[in-house]
Write a structure and sequence with these properties.
By secondary structure, the chain is an all-alpha fold. The protein is built from 14 helices and no strands.
């Protein structure tokens, strides 16, 4: 009886120690989580502060901007600053040109890169890997090296001061996006392709009706990357476009900055209008973008 009672008391003490250790581990885990979120929250404020200050300054007067300091809440809201921006320079023309040089390249580059990536991933031919490596080698060629040859080419074609130099290259795909999509297509099950071949489908039909719909996450990631690059492209339009008729928003904003550099509120309003599409795209497409980059569900089945 003595032994059994001592064993019971020992077991009770062990349970108490386990319970205490469990509580301590939970407290430490909770403390680490709180500290982590506190650090992330502080860093978020640091990184977001310039954007928030810019948004606040876009609806302030010049006098308030000079006196506001670090304050992010305007005393008076001047939304007429945005109206003044739209009236100060041909915003509609620049917006149309930016949309044309962004949307068309997104569609063209995505489809062409997808088709070429499908061919590299699913069609086995002699020398295919060598051709793929040569294509990848073009990624190491700096864009600055091809500026002068491309300019001479488009000049001889009579396309300078038009949008064609900004749109036509997208119909030839992109080595980086071809590589990205090839990795995705290479991981899809072969049974999909074999079943379609048995049904009498051609390789183009297999790509169009089976592989292209399955690659929506990867295509979304490619589309977001193309949008960010094209929408914010300043160097290309600056090289090929001279007249206001064909200028895009980045080039137009640079001219606006030179003309209204003293009027900080109008400059901030114009910048907010410029970056709003990028912000909306980030919030609405971030999940699909991350899924496409990490190639979720692209394992061999």
């Amino acid at each position: 009886m003595v032994n059994s009672s001592s064993e019971i008391s020992l077991a009770a003490k062990n349970n108490q120690h386990r319970t205490l250790n469990s509580h301590r581990l939970k407290e430490r885990s909770l403390l680490k989580t709180v500290l982590l979120y506190a650090v992330l929250g502080g860093l978020s404020v640091v990184f977001l502060y310039p954007l928030l200050w810019m948004a606040a300054s876009s609806v302030r007067s010049l006098e308030e901007i000079a006196k506001s300091g670090l304050n992010l809440i305007p005393r008076e809201w001047h939304f007429e600053n945005y109206k003044a921006v739209f009236e100060a320079f041909p915003f509609g023309v620049f917006l149309k040109n930016s949309l044309l040089t962004t949307i068309i390249p997104i569609i063209a580059t995505t489809l062409v890169s997808s088709l070429v990536a499908f061919a590299f991933a699913r069609i086995r031919v002699r020398g295919g890997n060598i051709i793929f490596m040569l294509m990848l080698a073009t990624m190491f060629l700096p864009g600055e090296v091809t500026i002068i040859p491309n300019f001479i080419l488009f000049k001889n074609l009579g396309m300078i001061n038009t949008l064609y130099p900004l749109i036509l290259p997208s119909f030839f795909g992109s080595a980086f996006f071809i590589f990205l999509l090839r990795q995705f297509y290479a991981g899809l099950p072969k049974s999909l392709e074999e079943a379609a071949i048995i049904e009498g489908a051609s390789m183009f039909q297999i790509w169009w009706k089976i592989f292209l719909p399955l690659s929506k996450p990867a295509l979304t990631a490619v589309g977001v990357l193309i949008f960010m690059g094209r929408w914010n492209d300043f160097f290309g339009p600056l090289i090929y476009v001279n007249s206001d008729r064909w200028k895009t928003l980045p080039v137009g904003l640079a001219g606006f900055q030179n003309q209204y550099s003293v009027q900080t509120n109008l400059l901030m309003a114009a910048t907010i209008v410029m970056i709003l599409p990028c912000i909306f795209l980030f919030f609405f497409a971030q999940r699909a973008f991350i899924q496409g980059i990490t190639f979720t569900g692209s394992k061999e089945g």
